[in-house]
């Protein structure tokens, strides 16, 4: 019974960190760097819980639903509030509220689709909400260097990517051997310590691979569409040549 509960403990830790991230952006706290780091550590928890569940053969519908509900808070609501608190608060309320709310809404839609529709083997359909939340939370740390209009557009793009049909590589199949599960708490502990000690620098560094992952899906989607367009053009040109030849022969 205890073994079956271990994956859920990591999921609850993910949810806890998401709530802490929200608390850390209240005006009386105002620590967006630490809040963003909480989102990043929550991503680690989210990546670990499923692998631990598979290693212990403790997968369940309860764990799946708990994971989705936790993800909405940690990677939907928390990053959106971080961005709003540092960049959108001084804007006209209507667009600022709508864009802020749209991000977790699209994240919830993305999770609902993931739960009911089987994706392609080895791929996610749409940008996973942990990656989108990680990008948004760390992007908010650059609010002094990036125009607000760009931050708003980026939030909308990330929201769209979550509900899009763009394919992203799925690394969840990379499991943890059962005899190596003892390493997981050490990795988590080290990550938490580093995150607390260096929240500002570490979160900004992690922004780079997260953005590259988001852009990778777009690039692969474009590459996949280009050959089909080329084939269509070749077929059209072939039909036109055949039509010209038939006219000449007539």
UniProtKB/TrEMBL annotation:
Gene3D superfamilies: 1.20.120.1760. The chain crosses the membrane at residues 7-26, 94-112, 124-142, 148-168, 180-199. Residues 231-250 are annotated as: Disordered. GO terms for molecular function: CDP-diacylglycerol-serine O-phosphatidyltransferase activity. Keywords: Lipid biosynthesis, Lipid metabolism, Membrane, Phospholipid biosynthesis, Phospholipid metabolism, Transferase, Transmembrane, Transmembrane helix. Its EC number is 2.7.8.8. This is CDP-diacylglycerol--serine O-phosphatidyltransferase. It comes from Paenibacillus lignilyticus. The gene is pssA.
């Amino acid at each position: 019974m205890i073994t079956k509960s271990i994956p859920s403990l990591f999921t609850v830790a993910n949810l806890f960190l998401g709530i802490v991230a929200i608390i850390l952006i209240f005006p009386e706290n105002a620590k967006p760097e630490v809040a963003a780091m909480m989102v990043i550590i929550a991503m680690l928890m989210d990546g670990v819980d499923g692998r631990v569940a598979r290693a212990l053969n403790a997968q369940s519908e309860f764990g799946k639903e708990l994971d989705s509900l936790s993800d909405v808070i940690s990677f939907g609501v928390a990053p959106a509030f971080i961005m709003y608190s540092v960049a959108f608060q001084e804007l006209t309320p209507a667009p600022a509220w709508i864009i802020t709310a749209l991000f977790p809404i699209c994240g919830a839609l993305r999770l609902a689709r993931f739960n009911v529709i089987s994706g392609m083997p080895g791929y996610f359909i749409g940008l996973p909400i942990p990656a989108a939340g990680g990008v948004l939370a760390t992007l908010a740390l650059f609010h002094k260097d990036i125009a607000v209009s760009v931050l708003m557009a980026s939030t909308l793009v990330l929201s769209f990517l979550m509900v899009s049909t763009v394919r992203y590589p799925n690394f969840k199949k990379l499991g943890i051997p059962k005899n190596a599960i003892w390493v997981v708490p050490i990795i988590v502990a080290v990550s938490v310590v580093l995150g607390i000690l260096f929240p500002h620098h570490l979160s900004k560094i992690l922004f780079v691979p997260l953005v590259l992952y988001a852009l990778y899906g777009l690039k692969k989607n474009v590459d996949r569409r280009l050959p089909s367009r080329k084939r269509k053009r070749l077929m059209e040109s072939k039909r036109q040549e055949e039509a010209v030849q038939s006219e000449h022969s007539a």
